[in-house]
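User: For a reading group we're discussing how well predicted structures match intuition. Take RNA polymerase sigma factor 70 region 4 type 2 domain-containing protein. Before you show the prediction, I'll give you the sequence so everyone sees exactly what went in.
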Amino acid sequence: MDEADRECRVDEALRLLERALALVDGVNEDAAMHVQIAIDRLMPQPGQSQVAPDDWDLISLLPHLTSRVYCLHRHNGLAIGTVATRLGLSLDEVVKQIRCAEAFLTGHAIQ
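Assistant: Thanks. Here is the predicted 3D structure of RNA polymerase sigma factor 70 region 4 type 2 domain-containing protein, as structure tokens, for the group to look at:
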């Protein structure tokens, strides 16, 4: 298998795992944790995360979709278009979710 084929397979696996994570999140936390571990193992290690260490507890309070979009973009450094493709969302929806997460985090930082 060449590198391009491998990358295509990994991308497809990540899309499917994200769908599985969305389905099991809130239904079975143990299963969700294992799916998240599989995603983390397939994804390249993030470079410089744009998520402040103090924000992780707040991020866990966000709805699943909002937290995934925000983390994929700000922590893993994926482009908005890549996040949209990975999660099966429109670009506008990804931007909306990022803005919602940022507003939530900013609102709590002010308090």
